[in-house]
Write a structure and sequence with these properties.
heterodimer, A: 119 residues, mainly beta, 7-stranded mixed beta sheet, 4-stranded antiparallel beta sheet, B: 114 residues, 6-stranded mixed beta sheet, 0% helix
Chain lengths: 119, 114
């Protein structure tokens, strides 16, 4: 178990460019989450996958954002036509259902994040 | 309280001191509370998941309590060490079948001075 990994760790891009981030969850974790943390704030939920199905999306996830999880393994988060307001830390987490708790006591295990700076 | 709030925003303590901080959450919209420790340049580390009123959990020198009726949780660190320096985040999980979106507070940044 090597933990959740994210690539790249840092990304600098110019406004208007597209960027894509990758998240590799802990193997056998069927739930995967994306969060975003902007300066001075706590992480904010963006979207959630169970296997390959995207089940929840925050209103923060504008049309310029798209997330995929083909085959229910790794996930990608793409931001099109980046804006300066997209500068943030993008965190990925994964979890595995804890039997009998209905998901209440599931721990979400986080990766180290991808820090995006849009110039 | 509509959001998850944490206090203080930051604090500095001397090595060996014990400390505690607070997480407030909507008591009417509660399912579970998570605590994380996030050191700079590392992944947030899960500390506790708490669900029951009056619950108390412990991990080494760190412990947490939960009051779901009044909507708060305390995190205690006994005998702080420099390696405890980190941002401590709490997050509330609201009720709702199939919902797993955590609502985080802004965190408490702890600095332990050697």
């Amino acid at each position: 178990d090597t933990g959740v990994s994210q690539n790249p760790r840092h990304k600098i891009t110019k406004r208007g460019q597209n960027v894509t981030f990758r998240c590799d969850p802990i193997s056998e974790h069927n739930r995967l989450y994306w969060y975003r943390q902007t300066l001075g704030q706590g992480p904010e939920f963006l979207t959630y996958f169970q296997n390959e199905a995207q089940l929840e999306k925050s209103r923060l996830l504008s049309d310029r954002f798209s997330a995929e999880r083909p085959k229910g393994s790794f996930s990608t988060l793409e931001i099109q036509r980046t804006e300066q307001g997209d500068s943030a830390m993008y965190l990925c987490a994964s979890s595995f259902p804890k039997t009998g708790t209905g998901g209440v006591q599931e721990t979400q295990y986080f990766g180290p994040g991808t820090r995006l700076l849009v110039l | 309280i509509l959001n998850v709030e944490q206090s203080p925003q930051s604090l500095h303590v001397q090595e060996g001191d014990s400390t505690n901080f607070t997480c407030s959450f909507p008591s009417s919209n509660f399912y579970a509370l998570h605590w994380y420790r996030w050191e700079t340049a590392k992944s947030p580390e899960a500390l506790f998941v708490m669900t029951l009123n009056g619950d108390e959990k412990k991990k080494g020198r760190i412990s947490a309590t939960l009051n779901t009726k009044e909507g708060y949780s305390y995190l205690y660190i006994k005998g702080s060490q420099p390696e405890d320096s980190a941002t401590y985040l709490c997050a509330s999980l609201p009720p709702g079948a199939g919902s797993y979106q955590l609502t985080f507070g802004k965190g408490t940044k702890l600095s332990v001075i050697p």
